[in-house]
Amino acid sequence: MQCEWLGERVATVDVTRAITNVIHGKEDAGWGPNAVFRFPKQGGTGAIWKGVAALLPADKQLYKATVTSINKDAKQVVLADGQVIQYDSLISSMPLDVTLSWLGKAEWAAGLQYSSTHIIGIGVRGSCPHGSKCWLYFPEDNCPYYRATVFSNYAAANCPAADAQLPTLCLADGSSAADSSSSSSGGPYWSLMFEVSESSFKPVAQQPVQLGGTAGTWPAVVAETLQGAMATQLLQPSDQIVSIFHRRLQHGYPTPSLGRDAVLAQALPWLQQAGIWSRGRFGSHKYEVANQDHSMMLGVEAADNILLGIKELTLAHPDIVNAQKNTSMRYTNSSRQKQQQ
Ligand SMILES: Cc1cc2nc3c(=O)[nH]c(=O)nc-3n(C[C@H](O)[C@H](O)[C@H](O)COP(=O)(O)OP(=O)(O)OC[C@H]3O[C@@H](n4cnc5c(N)ncnc54)[C@H](O)[C@@H]3O)c2cc1C
Fold first, then answer.
1. Which end of the chain, C or N, has fewer beta carbons within 10 A?
2. Model-level ipTM above the cut of 0.95
3. Ligand 1 within 6 A of 268 CB?
């Protein structure tokens, strides 16, 4: 990997403070660039983007449609159902390596590396024993995940209400609950979200594994995650598991590899000359500007660039945008009304 991406992405550790906290058993939530953040009370992270979508004209939105090809000369996007969409300028958030392969530039696509990610969600009966912790990193090899998030701490509605009656699927050690009839009982509930990276250097076990009770069959990484959660003391063996979620994302993290910038320097202008602004987490493939706030601004600035020729700050200068808080650009209801006039 190269080191250009580090910038503001990696919080500087105050070693003395960290050791003092460990000695005194003190929680410290106040360091790093994202020590304070906002989160929707209802609807999880997706609620932010559903809210943004609701500000935009419904007749300009189309979901659950798969793009199967782009004809850059005819300026057409072809959908799986055969629909052809004509464009003047195209902002694409599809993975750049896919777009480049489609357009005959497989050699550039090969220079863009990424890792896949497994997301595992575990719902637990009981009160959360982890105080106000939000996310924790695990460099040790006694668990498959690199990060665990106490997702129930983000919003009460991320968990079922305490009076919801849910059956125990299995215990945290993967065995059946003593009451194998799995009759339902109440909460409270709390939850953990685990992230496991996968690449050619770090394969992930995905063969089907049967968990106890009524938990059913899951990729082996789910069982390994439960084992890891006990090894790292996030769960106790007898904790009652009431829900399990697993999803694999082929494109998880864009790797800031040594050859990346050389590919981007050729590929993005080449696409732009053909009227395609490839932007977003994997659209522009820059890890240092690939979070949600960045991806939103990459889109805003791409539109400003197309309409007004304004330079795209986030894409060109991650170091500048990451070092400051945006207070200058605001999208308000009044600016929306002006647009509609
Ligand atoms: C494990 C993980 C944890 C993260 N944690 C955080 C966090 O804590 N905070 C944060 O701000 N960000 C986080 N992110 C990053 C966040 O998810 C991204 O910033 C955001 O999703 C990027 O938005 P995007 O629109 O650029 O790309 P995406 O959300 O990837 O959207 C691209 C879309 O294109 C679709 N697509 C691809 N190919 C086609 C096709 N052929 N036809 C039609 N559609 C297609 C995909 O299905 C996808 O929906 C995390 C990401 C991961 C993977």
1. C
2. yes
3. no
